[in-house]
Amino acid sequence: MKKARPYRLAIRALLIALVLVQSAVPFLGFIPLGVINITIVHLTVIVAAVVLGPNDGALLGLIWGLGIWFRSLAAPTSLLDTLVFINPVISVFPRILVGYLAGWVNRVIKEHFSWPPSIRLMLAAAVGSLLDTTVVLALMRLLAPGGLMRAYHVSADLLNQVLLTIVATNGLAELLLAVILVPMISLALLRANKFLDN
């Protein structure tokens, strides 16, 4: 246990630093495509969740969400930042949920099923990525429909179609990235750090 603590602290610090950089530099954490951002920072949060556990996943999700919120206030990169992500319920809360539930899914599968680690990590990554897409879009639709209509230049009757298109495009791309990269990165970290107890 004494040996595990420095490993966990070091990995936590590195992942926190990476999330901070990804949140501050658009092309490292987000790929801006007009009014749409393809998120890649969620990969770091999910890796933290499956390698360090749900609480650390929630911590990195909080840092990620706060980064989005601060960016929307100080240096917005799209209309969504100024019209939608300025609300911390939309920008912060879902990201905490992503980190916590991805770690929780990983832990439950590990404790109750004898599935290969790669399958377990793929499922946790899929849950985290799907939560990010669906919860964020649902909260945007519920809490900021006017901002969405202005950002996407659509009327109210077309807004749901736009959001479903985002799920089918952004959501699918982010999901594929997560299920491919999260297991690769996480397994490498776990093999290199035998004292980690995820």
Automatic annotation (TrEMBL):
Record Gene3D superfamilies: 1.10.1760.20
A Pfam family it matches: ECF_trnsprt
N-terminal signal peptide: none
Superkingdom of origin organism: Bacteria
Transmembrane portions of the chain: 59-79, 85-109, 121-143, 163-190
InterPro entries: ECF_trnsprt_substrate-spec
GO molecular function: transmembrane transporter activity
Record's keyword terms, sorted: Membrane, Transmembrane, Transmembrane helix
Listed name of the protein: ECF transporter S component
The species this protein was found in: Bombilactobacillus apium
